[in-house]
Amino acid sequence: MATAAAKRYARAVFELATDEGQVEEWGRRLTAVRNLLSETRVAAVLTNPTIPVSRRMELVSGAPHELDPEASNLARLLIESNRVNQVGDVAEEFEALADAAAGRVRATVTTAVELDHAERDRVAEQLSERLGKEVRMTVVVDKRILGGLKLQYGDHMIDASVATKLQQLRRRLADKS
Length: 177
Hints:
Blueprint: H1 4-20, H2 23-38, H3 40-46, H4 53-61, H5 69-80, H6 87-102, E1 104-111, H7 117-131, E2 134-141, E3 148-153, E4 156-161, H8 162-176
């Protein structure tokens, strides 16, 4: 779960992006910043308190091939405020704000086996029709559910997994004995 600070940064970036009409571009910038600052060796240097903050900020500024000026400014701001480790949360919160503004919903589908492209499309299409919104779906494979699927979107969870059905059946049988 994102911290209050990560949510504030995300909201500020989203408001700037909206005002500039560059929500998608800022989404790409945040992805670039997240990718750079989340790299293990880079993060170790940028969070090292023995290196002066000004030097750490120079390191990011000296990588123009990695980040454009706006993304570089955001990275320096995160370094200066000692929030490098929250860049992933900032990016996720930004994506959630962008999705909400565009009328999209993110969903996570958990299955016991990998879904092929057609199956993914079918699940996304059916969910989209049901919700009346565009769906951006992530598929997770978890063999422990045995079969069926679990669907999570927003604060909703639909569990149609075989493992849950078996567990419910066990409880009913145990209650009757």
